[in-house]
Amino acid sequence: MVNRPLSETRILIVGLGLIGGSLAAALRAVGFRGTILSCDPDATEITRGIEMGLIDGGDTQLAPLVEGASMIVLAVPVLAMQSVMTELAGVLDRAASNVVITDVGSTKAAIRDCAVAVFGGLPANLVLGHPIAGSEKSGVATANPRLYAHHKVILTPDADTDPAALARVRALWEACDAEVLEMDVARHDQVLARTSHLPHLLAFSLVDTLARQDQRLDIFRYAAGGFRDFTRIAGSDPVMWRDIFIANRDAVLASLDDFEAGVARLRRAIEAGDGDAMLATFDRASHARHYFDSLLNQTSYQAEYQMQQHGKLRYRVGPGGGVTGRIRVPGDKSISHRSIMLGALAEGVTEVKGFLEGEDSLATLQAFREMGVAIEGPHQGRVTVHGVGMHGLKAPSGPLYVGNAGTAMRLFSGLLAGQAFDTELTGDASLTKRPMGRVADPLRAMGAEIDTAEGGRPPLKIKGGRKLTGLDYDMPMASAQVKSCLLLAGLYAEGQTRVREPAPTRDHTERMLQGFGYEVHREGDTCWLKGGGTLTAGPIDVPSDISSATFFLVAAAITPGSDLLLEHVGINPTRIGVINILKLMGADLRLENAHEVGGEPVADLHIRYAPLHGIDIPLAQVPLAIDEFPALFIAAANAEGITRLRGAEELRIKESDRLQAMANGLATLGVEHVLLEDGIDIVGGGRLEGHNYSGGRIDSLGDHRIAMSFAIAGLRAAEEIVIDDCANVATSFPGFTELARQVGLNLEEEAGSGEDA
Ligand code: S3P
């Protein structure tokens, strides 16, 4: 990290305890050359600070120290702020004219109110802040120069805060190697009440409760590691914590209410011997804790997470590279979603192998946990779902968040319309723009009560306890999600639910329902089922996702010298549009070792380079390759002649407007094309060797498939391609970068922020 230089000349730290002392120590350690002074009511702390070489001088009084200070850091307990600020207000005119004041208090609303009372308003040169670091130790003797390194510091400026003052406080903490964030005061207090204040309260309370029960403290002799880990923070400074709980009363009480409700739920489960409920809670918690661990350990998950938070993972793709080897891409996304959904509603235990551990399918898994389903894993693609039966789901405690996953939201809407309880479905910014009327309208025709936001967009509010009646529905668009949604609602409806599709779409729902012993009929373009049956659990083996395999199929198809084997790929006839289209374009693609697993056909796909030529893509192939077009456009850009696509208006309402996003990217690379409302004509470069277009900077619009498509485009580009906003690749294809590098692509990831590529 390149930190801004610290321009302060004289820093006055008021309160020389662990926090103030560590700040001085950190500044010294990075070679801060200005003066550091400190004020503390305890003269021995000042003397010790001088002896330790942390401060140049100090006093027990504030007045003599303020003169010439360029920055004053208030590091006193929260309830001491009032008197310190009052004293400061009286002598502030002696400080340098551009003095900046900041604090380190653990609660912010109370300190802001105190400043407003003392100064008659929040001074523009006062920047409230809070370093999220500390320990149960206190006093300057425990000062630690690395206390803030890689820790977060939250600053809570308001609209009137002087930006220059804010920048200087930021520079102070960045000099200590901290990561500086900004938040508003109220949010800060709520977040800290949950993540810090509540755990401290619990630790104090647990230790005190046990100690009271056993006055001689004998019981502690038998306490093992669990007790020690849980209660370390009960050794913290009592005065400081009293102040925090007084200052952050309301937010702490709210978090305590939530906690008490959680404990009460567990109490009931224990009382009733409800092992499933316990398992569901422990499992959720255990996963959340592992996730948190990976954040702390700065594993790749953290990098991913951080980038996701900022939406700023960037790919850099060097021109050229090869495509050879033997790889296995992750499990099928559509089947992974459905394995959890049907497993949860089944009687018995469903063992899933090959589950896609991508964010979309994990969102589905998490949603079922929130509805009381015990789910073990995922661990290396293995998941065990303890089915609760058709009517065993429980009301979740809040909205179900499904992230970027359109499939989850649309399938859930059907399934939840049949439940006894109300639910709300929400998603990320991209999902919130996608149309849900296509499922809400026919569900309403079945008797469901569903509210959407304007224009039929999420969130979806679904009323429980409605009686559903079977529907005979002519789908206006070829959509497997709509079909699946209605079939899932149909499980709960009286009578038959029939869905007619204008063109064949993926049939995983029908196949898997049959696999779970539910009768589903199909004749021509119509499928139907009768409500009121049950599902029986069984093992599921998820094949590799042909949609993920596509990026490597196209990579190999466009790169001279390539020879690649993709193992165990699902080749369900409703999904193989990409194979048909690539073959029509001249690709040397063979299916080997074809066999069936759990009702789904699979094969190894063997592809070697052969020159491609442009084609008119047959209309019938469009729904069978609907997710594969971004990658196929890259194939077209490398083919000889023109490739024409029509009848693909659905591409405009995927995770992005994929026709527009691809056209923009192709334009950047200099690939000639004509964009239409429902398709595109692409004029291929057609060279057999060398490059077919330039490089450039591409915006993936946060769409995983756009990002991966331009990553493989690099194989035939003249210069580097830089792709912004790629973190969502983790929704469908965790490990994409590693596999791409393994086969020979020149792909690097970096954290990106805005315009600085
Ligand atoms: C899916 C259906 C398709 C596809 C999506 C997954 C499914 O969507 O694009 O990635 O699992 O049912 P539509 O039904 O909107 O075509």
Automatic annotation (TrEMBL):
<keyword id="KW-0808">Transferase</keyword>
<feature type="binding site">
    <location>
        <position position="479"/>
    </location>
    <ligand>
        <name>3-phosphoshikimate</name>
    </ligand>
</feature>
<feature type="binding site">
    <location>
        <position position="334"/>
    </location>
    <ligand>
        <name>3-phosphoshikimate</name>
    </ligand>
</feature>
<dbReference type="InterPro" id="IPR046826">
    <property type="entry name" value="PDH_N"/>
</dbReference>
<keyword id="KW-0057">Aromatic amino acid biosynthesis</keyword>
<keyword id="KW-0560">Oxidoreductase</keyword>
<dbReference type="InterPro" id="IPR036968">
    <property type="entry name" value="Enolpyruvate_Tfrase_sf"/>
</dbReference>
<feature type="binding site">
    <location>
        <position position="333"/>
    </location>
    <ligand>
        <name>phosphoenolpyruvate</name>
    </ligand>
</feature>
<keyword id="KW-0520">NAD</keyword>
<dbReference type="InterPro" id="IPR036291">
    <property type="entry name" value="NAD(P)-bd_dom_sf"/>
</dbReference>
<feature type="binding site">
    <location>
        <position position="338"/>
    </location>
    <ligand>
        <name>3-phosphoshikimate</name>
    </ligand>
</feature>
<feature type="binding site">
    <location>
        <position position="654"/>
    </location>
    <ligand>
        <name>3-phosphoshikimate</name>
    </ligand>
</feature>
<dbReference type="InterPro" id="IPR003099">
    <property type="entry name" value="Prephen_DH"/>
</dbReference>
<protein>
    <recommendedName>
        <fullName>3-phosphoshikimate 1-carboxyvinyltransferase</fullName>
        <ecNumber>2.5.1.19</ecNumber>
    </recommendedName>
</protein>
<comment type="similarity">
    <text>Belongs to the EPSP synthase family.</text>
</comment>
<feature type="binding site">
    <location>
        <position position="658"/>
    </location>
    <ligand>
        <name>phosphoenolpyruvate</name>
    </ligand>
</feature>
<dbReference type="InterPro" id="IPR046825">
    <property type="entry name" value="PDH_C"/>
</dbReference>
<dbReference type="GO" id="GO:0004665">
    <property type="term" value="F:prephenate dehydrogenase (NADP+) activity"/>
</dbReference>
<dbReference type="InterPro" id="IPR001986">
    <property type="entry name" value="Enolpyruvate_Tfrase_dom"/>
</dbReference>
<dbReference type="Pfam" id="PF00275">
    <property type="entry name" value="EPSP_synthase"/>
</dbReference>
<dbReference type="GO" id="GO:0009423">
    <property type="term" value="P:chorismate biosynthetic process"/>
</dbReference>
<dbReference type="GO" id="GO:0003866">
    <property type="term" value="F:3-phosphoshikimate 1-carboxyvinyltransferase activity"/>
</dbReference>
<comment type="pathway">
    <text>Amino-acid biosynthesis; L-tyrosine biosynthesis; (4-hydroxyphenyl)pyruvate from prephenate (NAD(+) route): step 1/1.</text>
</comment>
<keyword id="KW-0963">Cytoplasm</keyword>
<comment type="pathway">
    <text>Metabolic intermediate biosynthesis; chorismate biosynthesis; chorismate from D-erythrose 4-phosphate and phosphoenolpyruvate: step 6/7.</text>
</comment>
<dbReference type="InterPro" id="IPR006264">
    <property type="entry name" value="EPSP_synthase"/>
</dbReference>
<comment type="similarity">
    <text>Belongs to the prephenate/arogenate dehydrogenase family.</text>
</comment>
<dbReference type="Pfam" id="PF02153">
    <property type="entry name" value="PDH_N"/>
</dbReference>
<dbReference type="GO" id="GO:0005737">
    <property type="term" value="C:cytoplasm"/>
</dbReference>
<feature type="binding site">
    <location>
        <position position="434"/>
    </location>
    <ligand>
        <name>phosphoenolpyruvate</name>
    </ligand>
</feature>
<feature type="active site" description="Proton acceptor">
    <location>
        <position position="627"/>
    </location>
</feature>
<comment type="subunit">
    <text>Monomer.</text>
</comment>
<feature type="binding site">
    <location>
        <position position="627"/>
    </location>
    <ligand>
        <name>3-phosphoshikimate</name>
    </ligand>
</feature>
<dbReference type="GO" id="GO:0006571">
    <property type="term" value="P:tyrosine biosynthetic process"/>
</dbReference>
<feature type="domain" description="Prephenate/arogenate dehydrogenase">
    <location>
        <begin position="9"/>
        <end position="300"/>
    </location>
</feature>
<dbReference type="InterPro" id="IPR013792">
    <property type="entry name" value="RNA3'P_cycl/enolpyr_Trfase_a/b"/>
</dbReference>
<feature type="binding site">
    <location>
        <position position="481"/>
    </location>
    <ligand>
        <name>phosphoenolpyruvate</name>
    </ligand>
</feature>
<comment type="function">
    <text>Catalyzes the transfer of the enolpyruvyl moiety of phosphoenolpyruvate (PEP) to the 5-hydroxyl of shikimate-3-phosphate (S3P) to produce enolpyruvyl shikimate-3-phosphate and inorganic phosphate.</text>
</comment>
<dbReference type="InterPro" id="IPR023193">
    <property type="entry name" value="EPSP_synthase_CS"/>
</dbReference>
<keyword id="KW-0028">Amino-acid biosynthesis</keyword>
<keyword id="KW-0827">Tyrosine biosynthesis</keyword>
<dbReference type="GO" id="GO:0070403">
    <property type="term" value="F:NAD+ binding"/>
</dbReference>
